[in-house]
Amino acid sequence: MRNAEVAALLYSISELLELKGENTFKVRAYARAARAIEGMLEDIEEVAARGGLKEIPGVGESIARKIEEYLATGKVGYYEELLKQVPAELHELMKIPGIGHKTALVLNQKLGVRTIDELERAAKQHRIRRLPGFGAKKEENILKAIERYRQRSTRIPLGTALPLARRIVEVLKSSDVIDRIEPAGSLRRRKETVGDIDILATSKDAKAAIEAFVHLPVVKNVLGKGTTKATIVTRDAIQIDLRILEDKSFGTSLQYFTGSKEHNIKLRDIARMKGFKLSEYDIEEVGTGRKIYCMTDDEVYIRLGLLPIPPEIREDTGEIEAALSGKLPELVELKDLKGDFHVHTDWSEGTNSLEEMVEAAKKLGYEYIAITDHSKSLGVAHGLSEERLLEQIDRIHRLNDKLSDFHIFTGTEVDIRADASIDFPDSILRQCDAVVAALHVGQKQTRREITGRLITAMENEHVDIIAHPTGRIIGEREGYDVDMDALLDTAARTGTVLEINAYPSRLDLNDTNSRKAKSKGVKLTVDTDAHSTEQLGLMEFGMNVARRGWLEKNDLVNTRSARDVRFKG
DNA sequence: GCCGTTTTCGGCCCGACTGTTTTCAGTCG
Q: Per the CB 3.0–4.6 Å rule, which of A5, A78, A113, A291 could disulfide with A107?
């Protein structure tokens, strides 16, 4: 599948056109088409083959022709021409806040600057302030922006940002200068990583609220402080904005600051077509000038004639069209979950006993868990031998006899070995209720080998679930090289369940692949892979992914009651 | 470059801030 390739090409064209100073609508047209193709579930080559390119929203005559050219020849003449006209690497400069396409081009043409390092040198040599339209202030700001850009080049995992945001919200709430308060931005959309944290609030005393915020113990320095907005950086180098809003604008502001940007552009377009003007302050009826204020952001959608769209799917990947036609998915919720199929104990590398994990799961309101300790070949994780596993199974049976209204499924997280064989024989797997298979060794193998191993595992009638199917660790390593389409097709064909691993640095499958899995009829499960009682509580992070992947209750097997749980074997 | 309950041409989200300017361009979210 070459969708990502085609999308990357169109993004590049968009960037080059932007640098060239082309009509912004043309720039946006290419970016829009790129995004549509990126998020598309169908294979672009198949779409092209049946002549359906122009059905893709944002793709017209001109872009369709370029896609066809690319698919046929691997090249696009128009793109090659652009590359000769503008240095592509110039786009790197635009990563520095304060530098847009105009500035980047001027700096390149007048000073020959191409990279961030060269930009820094030019600023330090005071060559920038001498340019027309520039000044000393701008030069200083560029230097500061470069410094800050280098300090926080990586995005923050949601697993870090969300607890931090919650703590801050709690403290400010209890300070009695804040009335309403709500984190917005990509954090509220529950993206797997966020760039910074945006918090919105209302207050009768904005000044006092700002003061309370900039004096929080986590604050390392204050980047800016005005009457309605302040920006701070925490000791962990995380940037947090607080905005104090007027009460009556809270709903429209929350909608606006939650984004995404693309979602907002589309929504405002819809508003305009319906005779309204939507801004962060209000919805204005064009003609009469009558202003509508909303208490919540759900109300914004309703006033515009849409179903309220959950923040997690506000990415302009079809949600607005769905909300217009009344066909939004009913996203699965944490409370729908009845259990967890991927749990470790101190029999392998977990820190808590079987009994303790069961107690903790009951406290979460679950009906069941599956105990899935590692298998024998995973020495580093104290994998269980066949004898130990059978012993554990026996122990679980006896525990189950004593338990009422809770069930423990026996299981294993069995290793898919480097030669594609499964770490336990069928005679052992048969005795497990839930067989979770995963790949831990040989992660550097070729796409063909990795995909082959996963397919072989899924074709085993005893393998019920594939855990963390791509093996990626956020911010640390890319997943292994797996053919996602082949994986999903095989899962659908064999009835193998794919895991959304809830561990905040895994979140694997991710949101887009989960959505794709659903579209192919694959069943999923959100599991914590908990190694302690505490980690059973990480489920919400996996559920964020499930919701961002448009999953509904029926798409997850662990929303079923214990007696309705069916795997393939 | 795309697209149509304003339209096959003329629009394309909206408002605020900043720094450089004498009225605004560039950038951001």
A: A113
Q: What pLDDT shows up at residue A379? A: 67
Nucleotides of B under 7 A from a protein CB: 1-3, 5-6, 11-16, 18-21, 25-29
A264 C-beta less than 7 Å away from strand B = yes
User: What are the structural domain ranges in chain A?
Assistant: 3-85, 88-151, 156-245, 251-324, 334-564
Residues 128-147 in A having a C-beta less than 7 A from any atom of strand B are 129, 132-139, 141
CA separation, residue A245 to residues A12, A409, A483 (Å): 38, 51, 47
Averaged pLDDT of chain A: 91
> How many other CB atoms are found less than 10 A from the CB of residue A326?
8
* CA-to-C1' span, A133 to B21 (A): 9
pLDDT over threshold 80, residue A16: yes
How far in angstroms lies nucleotide B28's C1' from the CA of residue A61? Answer: 32
Q: Which nt has its C1' nearest the CA of A63?
A: B1
What is the third-level CATH fold of A3-85?
A: DNA polymerase; domain 1 (1.10.150)
Nucleotide nearest to A198 (CA to C1'): B29
Mean pLDDT of A349-368: 96
- Give me the mean pLDDT over the A495-510 stretch: 96
Instruction: State the CATH class of domain A156-245.
Output: alpha beta
Which CATH architecture best describes the domain A251-324?
2-Layer Sandwich (3.30)
Q: pTM of whole model > 0.90?
A: no
Q: What is the pLDDT of residues A159-179, one digit of tens each?
A: 999 999 999 999 998 888 899
Amino acid code (one letter) for A432? C
Strands of the sheet with A407-409, listed across from one edge: A339-343, A368-371, A407-409
Contacts of residues A8-14 at CB distance under 8 Å and 24 or more positions apart, as own/partner, are A8/A34, A9/A34, A9/A70, A9/A76, A9/A79, A10/A34, A10/A37, A10/A63, A10/A66, A10/A67, A12/A79, A12/A88, A13/A66, A13/A76, A13/A78, A13/A79, A13/A82
Domain A334-564 CATH class label: alpha beta
Hits for CB < 7 Å against strand B across A residues 182-221: 185, 198
